[in-house]
Amino acid sequence: MNSTIELLAPRYDIAWYPWAVQYFFMIALSYATLWLAAPALVFGKQKWLPTARLALLACLATTLVAPVALLADLHQPLRFWHFYAYANSHSWMSVGSLILPLYVVGVIVLAWLAWRPALQANRQAPGIAGFIARWLSLGDSPTPRALLVLVGLCTLALSTGIMLYTGAEVAIVKARPLWNTVWLPPMFVATGFIAAAGLILVLNPVTGERSTVVSGQMLKVMLGACLVAGLVAGSWFLDGINADVGSVAAAMQSVRGSAEWRSTALWGGLTGLALFGAVLYLLSRPAPRRPALYAWTWVLGLVALHVGWMFRWVVLMDVQTVARHSAGFHHYGIPAGSSGILGIVGTFGLWLAAILLIDLFVPWRQARQGGSAADLSPVTPAPAHPAAQSAAENSEGTPSHG
Amino acid sequence: MDPIRRSLLGQLARLSAGAALVPLSSVANAGINQQPPRREGDPTKRYGMLIDLRQCIGCQACTVSCHIENAAPLGSFRTTVAQYEVEHQETGEVATFMLPRLCNHCENPPCVPVCPVEATFQRQDGIVVVDSDRCVGCAYCVNACPYDARFINERTQTADKCTFCAHRLEAGLLPACVESCVGGARIIGDMRDPESQISRMIAEHGDALMVLQPEKNTMPQVFYLGMDERFVTRPQAEPVALDVLDPHGKEMGYEFHH
Amino acid sequence: MAKSSVDKSRRRFMKGAVAAGGAATFVAGYADPLLKMGKGVTGSAGEKPKDRIHGNSLAPEYSVDPQSGELTLNPDQRVAFTVCYGCTTKCGVRVRVDNATDQVLRVSGNPYNPLSADEHLPMRTPVVDALRGLSAYGDQGQQNRSTACARGNAMMAQIDSPFRVTHCLKRVGGRGGREWQKVSFEQLIEEVCEGGDLFGEGDVDGLRAIHDHDTLIDPENPEYGPKANQLMVMEATDYGRSALLKRFTFNAFATRNYGHHGSYCGLAYRMGSGAVMDDLAKNAHTKPDIQNARFILYVGTAPSQAGNPFKRQGRLIAQARAAGSLDYVVIDPALNASVSHAADHNRWVAIRPGSDSALAMGMIQWLLDNAGYAKDFLELPGQPAAEAAGEATHTNATHLVIDTEGHPRRGRFLRASDLGQAEAGSEADLPMVVADGDLVQGTQVMAAELFVDREVAQADGNSVRVKSSMTLLREAANEHGLAEYAEHCGIPEATIIDLARRFASHGRRAVTNSHGGMMSGNGFYAAFGMQMLNVLAGNHNRKGGSAMGGGQFNGVGEGPRYDLANFPGKRGPQGLFLSRSRFPYEKSSEYQRKVAAGEDPYPARAPWRSLAPPILTEHLSSALDGYPYPIKAVIGCMANPIYGQAGLEALIAEKLKDPKRLGLFVAIDGFLNETNRYADYIVPDSVMYEVWGFTGAWKGNLGKMTTACWPVVEPRQQQTAEGEPVSMESFFIATAKRLGLPGFGDEAIPDAEGKLHPLNRAEDFFLRAAANVAMQGEPLPAADASDIQHAGLAPLMPRLARTLKPEERGPVAYLYARGGRFEDFKDHFKGQNLTSAWKRTLCVYNEQVGTSINTQSGQPNRGVPCHGLPPLADGRAMREVFTEEEWPLLAFSFKSNLMNSYAIGLERLRMIKPYNPVMMHRQDAERFGISHGDTIRIESPGGSVVALALVGEGVMPGALGIEHGYGHRDLGATPHVIDGESQPDLEWLRAGININDLGFKDPTRNVDGTWLEPISGAAVRQGLPIRVTPIDV
Ligand SMILES: Nc1nc2c(c(=O)[nH]1)N[C@H]1C(S)=C(S)[C@@H](COP(=O)(O)OP(=O)(O)OC[C@H]3O[C@@H](n4cnc5c(=O)[nH]c(N)nc54)[C@H](O)[C@@H]3O)O[C@H]1N2
Ligand SMILES: Nc1nc2c(c(=O)[nH]1)N[C@H]1C(S)=C(S)[C@@H](COP(=O)(O)OP(=O)(O)OC[C@H]3O[C@@H](n4cnc5c(=O)[nH]c(N)nc54)[C@H](O)[C@@H]3O)O[C@H]1N2
Ligand code: SF4
Ligand code: SF4
Ligand code: SF4
Ligand code: SF4
Ligand code: SF4
Ligand SMILES: [Mo]
């Protein structure tokens, strides 16, 4: 059929806009950072507390922004209540619409519980910060650790629901062979963790925390996530090459021969490998050299964020341009306005605003696993490594200067 | 790739950790992504369409009449007719292949269960419709239809698709595209009525009929006569040259993008 | 500490600012959703459709109960029958109109009309039954459909097009400047009739001054005729309204110079056909009886890609494909929609553009060599033999032609008078044939010898060489070997033989058909040759053969109710056509002067074509160059030669702008096109569905038919002071009345009793024509109330009442209720013969052609088809002047199956196909370093365009195919300014290319002209020499 030529075929627009990418990105950061906050917050691993603080900050901000992006992908945003009025247990999206608010509430409550002792401690602060602390802390009763653990566990459970539904929602779509694979949900999760670890690597110096412990932990998480992602991608590829999983074979067939897709795949593969290599390199450095090297890990963090975002862009946007019914690819030029670049930038803008507002008004650096204002001093965590002890870790209880 | 290497890699694939995910996927598909019950419409009927490609002359009367009848926005289509230059597999002769497409009103429509608000549903007469009052415009169904049969109507901001012109069928009239089919290729009718033209033609042509993308298990109810198997799935063809050039050769883009 | 606190608050401030910035970007980025939410407060972020399930789908025009079949009309709409102007097929259509807004909602086919319906309904069918028959009731509507094609559907947008002219316009600034001012109709008529210094460019003769039948244009050349001939009137073609235009032109104003698009539509084919049908006056042509034919060779016409009648042919070959009843081959430089991969028994064979005479002569050679012709039929020497054999007519295959060089009757048939058996020119002066070795008159024997070549003693004792027509044909066919034919046309020898063999094997049910593909440099002989195959098959007038069709019910002649052909004071035009057609150069003063001066009279200054009808291809350019004579005014009516004729724009645009070469140019049109852009005045015209008229079919229908149209919606344009819409009709009526011309005004139309009736408005003419149509032969019955209601005739009835006699109204309403008058769909055959037969002698040899002279070379033309390479005007092969080295490819065009020449403004067609990439063969692409989708430059001796290459196998190597209908510069493609206000500027209307921009001036001519086919003067649009280069943009 090499000489078949399509003389006339309609053009199709994409149906999901970059908002979808933003949602999938934000929500993945959200659930992955939640899990990064969990060891310390929920499971009481003190060593992870510095990470947990950054992770919780990131988690809350992304959790708040994600639904906003999701709403925008609806052409009838004000009809969001239809999701609840006419819920359809047959639809993964509907299932998701039920999980998502619970999850968001879970994250908010968890953050509140974690930050409440600090807020209580801040009630006397002058100005608006004090006002907010008074208002947000809802009295001065202690925050039972058990409650925090309970909420944490529930939210973690809900987050698996999010992972499942966001993955399944896309993976069940037979219409797009590149989506229709069991490997997609784990890949979303794995790349989500890569990006989340990256985000914390970036936040670590930006917030002034500069914790080597955090860097070390994140590098390890990233290494693991990279490994899983590589395994998943490899399995998908083998499925396809072997042609015994029809949809994967069809998926590979659908983009075979496209120079753009080849370069996209190459780029993804190479960045992944480079990331993996760099992480491995850093982790294998002798301990004394790490602080100096770790000061640069934010660069890796950016690369990781790029990987996480690009993966979603390619999966959600680029895949929609693969014609499923006619030959070739549909043209999608990202528009400059709201449904395109401005929308993408806008979501990040919102995220930035959210994180800065939290930073401004919430003493997130003092996040704890429960307790009350009175428990705030003395400083609890024993530094993982004396040499790596940073100013940030000493600053607990001191007003934010970030 | 040689078969030995293939099977080797296959073994590898099966051994890989994710094989455990397979049962999970069946839950994702079967458990949750199941067809909700049909509602509305006449339960005594099942509408379907037969397109006799031998009689399609590629005139696009269907495309335009449907567009007018159903007030589709410019550049969005409920039905289309693609045109290909094809080489005959045996004789090597070159000929034109016309492929009219529209919603297949699938027996197992993947667009329906995905709808988070059950705005899109299948009527008891088999017609798959969208309740535009309820639709939230999430476009999930648009992505879920393997046939590009749906679009978001830029004017109503809700999902839009072929309704088999249910408003005309209900008035005892024919859909616009059937009524206007110059070649006489499109036949619609009630497949539960053994006397209907479509039932008789289905009986007559039986195995010669084909549907699009049968491997997706959507069970389309638009049947094609004179189909070349190579077009049942996504055609492997040199894609259409879609650029629009101005008199100086500058690309000017497509006028009706949204 | 203090410092750090300042620092801190600065930091806080910065963070706040960044946060605010982030929030602001967000708000900007979230604008769309926010807007939607704003709108969504009312329940929907979009437009809320009428129905939750059916959206904004149209309300059905009526409903039919599935059990009882009872039909209920929708009181808000009406359905009416009229005609479609979407292409020259002019199908009868049914139009749904919204009663409240007078908007057309959708269009489909008229079930009574054979051009739209599968099997059209008998006239006696009540309209309500016809409407029911279109419904789903009992699946009736899809067992017998009546359709409108894509264009026919989309055309309704023409009515309210932003590019439509609705007001009388007068140019501002020089011609062609696209700037206009509105004037009143009355002012326009006054200025056009009276002339004066209309544009501040000096005095212009008005029509009154030009209307001079007493003064010769040029006393030196009296044959040119009176000055009145200096008005030229042109139109596209008869869209059903020409009768009134011609009444004005020929018989009221009485100018010789009228032209229509025929010469750039399909004239070469039509004349080739006219040559075999012995009808070079009207150039009769035929179409295959598709339903009964077994083998059809489509050569240079593409049924279902285009062709006339577009829908009917498309549908019939589609049905034949499904039924497997027909085998057909499409011989075309490009693959198109007529060849379907979904069915067997149809096939495309690629041919080199402009080389069809080689294929024709190759096939003829094989057929003659292998007795592959209808021997018994061809042997019939005269009508008595034909009748005895049960044939409608006979051929001149056996007739003898005088072939002695220099003989005064060379090229003429040997007639009884040559042998002293009859008086020359008398009834009895019949052609001679040879039967059983004897010379006899064709009427006296039942069979004669086909191949004769002998000396004959004439009455005067001189011996003369005679050859039978068949012998001449065989000689012509044998002039080249099959291998050479194959090489010239690019079709392998084996394929030519196979085609000939298959053609012969189907006997009299094998047919060939041609049209636009014959518009090449040697088109006349190519078409003549192709049509000769039909003669050899003996398929004329036969079931499954070449059909004449039933013709039209003529309403504008001397009808049973009114005489619309004659009127008191009627005049006939005199003198020579501007195109020097139908007039032997040898009788001209120019010729005489040259001979008297002892000069060689050849070549003439420019071609004179004694066989060709008046041709617009020569009219305009000749007039602007003043040869044979200059003109003073042009009235153009919905015609667009500048877009349609290859090379014309470059040739005449500058001259057309010169008021000295042409004083006055009035265009009557619905739109501003590439031609009337140069007009001085625009008269806004009605657009289809708003017009009156009667159309027929361009063959392809076996029965007799007339499609009627009436203004089913109100014309949207300006009105005259009398309250009539300004239109072509009101323009001619007002002009004629102002000039005091006969045939218009109060006493203009005689009825059967000789009483005179007025012609003051369009319907005065057309309703009377309707009465003639309705009441000729067996008169139609009167329409009943149900018919009137179901056919939406309410707006028409008062007009019938005010114009027609009471006894005429019922039958006329009956006619309009069915959208015309159509012979019933019944057996159109008498045994194996078609009822509508062509009775003239079919020509193997055409005496008129064989005795005509090419005025450029002085050589006689061949009277039988023959092969030649496309020549330029002086007889040199085009390839001699424009060599293959320099111009390696040949460009040709084919009609878009979607667009026509003026559909570009229709968004619903543009959205399907916005552009026309050009077709190029893979081999050529490789040769010139071009890949699929590349931008290329195409250059010809006359122009250069930029295109997108579509590289594949679907085109002949060496040829480049260009879809016609794109590449506009007007009709919306460039905004015009009217009263200072600009039309919308939609750059997409300019997209694509027009092959006619690659046409060129024939460098071998002395008086400017584009490249024209020598015999017919048809515009050459197939086989233009070009070269291509990839370009980077
Ligand atoms: N869709 C559509 N239909 C139409 C019209 C329209 O504009 N659009 N216009 C109507 C009109 S006005 C007319 S006259 C008819 C004309 O109908 P056709 O005659 O069928 O159409 P054309 O496109 O003029 O030419 C027919 C074919 O000749 C081929 N051809 C070109 N050069 C050569 C050659 O040298 N040799 C051979 N053998 N073939 C060649 C072209 O590729 C084309 O496919 O169509 C009518 N129908
Ligand atoms: N290269 C190339 N050239 C071709 C052809 C081709 O296939 N290839 N085809 C040739 C053929 S077959 C033909 S017939 C000619 C056609 O050539 P023409 O008959 O000269 O041109 P049209 O474009 O049909 O011109 C009709 C004009 O009428 C006007 N008009 C349209 N609709 C209406 C209406 O409803 N009312 C009024 N009052 N005016 C209206 C528009 O201004 C339009 O331009 O072109 C020929 N030229
Ligand atoms: S064709 Fe698409 S839209 Fe139509 S029923 Fe099937 S899946 Fe749904
Ligand atoms: S776009 Fe509308 S119909 Fe489609 S899935 Fe979403 S809500 Fe349902
Ligand atoms: S049935 Fe109606 S809606 Fe569907 S494609 Fe045909 S015309 Fe369009
Ligand atoms: S209207 Fe009929 S013949 Fe024309 S393109 Fe559509 S399906 Fe084919
Ligand atoms: S063929 Fe189509 S465009 Fe031409 S007259 Fe008929 S309906 Fe109109
Ligand atoms: Mo034409």
TrEMBL record, chain A:
Superkingdom, taxonomy of origin: Bacteria
Feature: compositional bias, Polar residues: 393-402
Keyword NADP: no
Membrane topology: Multi-pass membrane protein
One annotated Gene Ontology cellular component of this protein: plasma membrane
InterPro entries the record matches: Electron_transfer_protein, NrfD-like
Subcellular location: Cell membrane
Pfam entry (one): NrfD
Residue numbers spanned by region Disordered: 373-402
Record's keyword annotation contains Ribosomal protein: no
Keyword field: Cell membrane, Membrane, Transmembrane, Transmembrane helix
Family to which the UniProt record says this protein belongs: Belongs to the NrfD family.
Protein name: Tetrathionate reductase
UniProtKB/TrEMBL annotation, chain B:
Cited PANTHER family: PROTEIN NRFC
Molecular function via GO: 4 iron, 4 sulfur cluster binding; metal ion binding
Signal peptide: 1-30
UniProt keyword annotations, A-Z: 4Fe-4S, Iron, Iron-sulfur, Metal-binding, Signal
Organism per entry: Vreelandella zhuhanensis
Domain 4Fe-4S ferredoxin-type: 47-77, 126-155
The protein's name in its UniProt record: 4Fe-4S dicluster domain-containing protein
Coiled-coil regions listed in the entry: none
InterPro entries named among the record's database cross-references: 4Fe4S_Fe-S-bd, 4Fe4S_Fe_S_CS, DsrO-like, ET_IronSulfur_Cluster-Binding, TAT_signal
UniProtKB/TrEMBL annotation, chain C:
Any GO MF annotation of the entry: oxidoreductase activity
Listed Pfam families: Molybdopterin (PF00384), Molydop_binding (PF01568)
Protein known as: Tetrathionate reductase subunit TtrA
Natural source organism: Vreelandella zhuhanensis
Keyword annotations: 4Fe-4S, Iron, Iron-sulfur, Metal-binding, Molybdenum, Oxidoreductase, Signal
Cofactor: Mo-bis(molybdopterin guanine dinucleotide); [4Fe-4S] cluster
Matching Gene3D superfamilies: 2.40.40.20, 3.30.200.210, 3.40.50.740, Dimethylsulfoxide Reductase, domain 2 (3.40.228.10)
Domain 4Fe-4S Mo/W bis-MGD-type per the UniProt entry, residue ranges: 77-163
Keyword Ligase: no
SUPFAM superfamilies recorded: ADC-like (SSF50692), Formate dehydrogenase/DMSO reductase, domains 1-3 (SSF53706)
Record family assignment: Belongs to the prokaryotic molybdopterin-containing oxidoreductase family.
Classification via PANTHER family: TETRATHIONATE REDUCTASE SUBUNIT A (PTHR43742:SF9), TRIMETHYLAMINE-N-OXIDE REDUCTASE (PTHR43742)
